[in-house]
Amino acid sequence: MASRRNIDYSRLADDEDDSYDGSGKRQKDPRFDYTPKSYDKIPWKSIILALFLLFLGCLLLFFSFCIFTGHMGGDHSQAYGLLGLGILTFLPGFYETRIAYYSWRGAQGYRFASIPDY
């Protein structure tokens, strides 16, 4: 473990003029404004992308199932490829769609702000 160094700390001065304009009044800092409507903005592009990935993944998984069972022509290597692509598209689509659905229903801990906006 590293040893602590002997450093003397001092308090910061209370009369800093960084956040004051000429009139002696503090400038408004927009970083600390709380606007609840900014959290309720619905990322429609992300939701549409999630639904597209979900349905594309379901379609690819269905095609791979049909090839595996012999209802559709094709080699088993094609079915494995469709299975891999189906899983890779279904999982993120399902995850983001689930977050959007729970946000829409108002479940605790889910907000539209947790969906990345593209």
TrEMBL record:
UniProt KW RNA-binding keyword: no
Alphabetic keyword roster: Membrane, Transmembrane, Transmembrane helix
Protein's name in the database: Transmembrane protein 230
Region (Disordered): 1-31
Chain ranges passing through the membrane: 47-71, 77-95
Superkingdom in the source lineage: Eukaryota
Gene Ontology annotations for the cellular component aspect, listed alphabetically: endomembrane system; membrane
Membrane topology according to the record: Multi-pass membrane protein
UniProt family annotation: Belongs to the TMEM134/TMEM230 family.
One Pfam family per UniProt: TMEM_230_134
Localization per Swiss-Prot or TrEMBL: Membrane
UniProt entry tagged with the keyword Transmembrane helix: yes
Positions with biased composition (Basic and acidic residues): 1-13
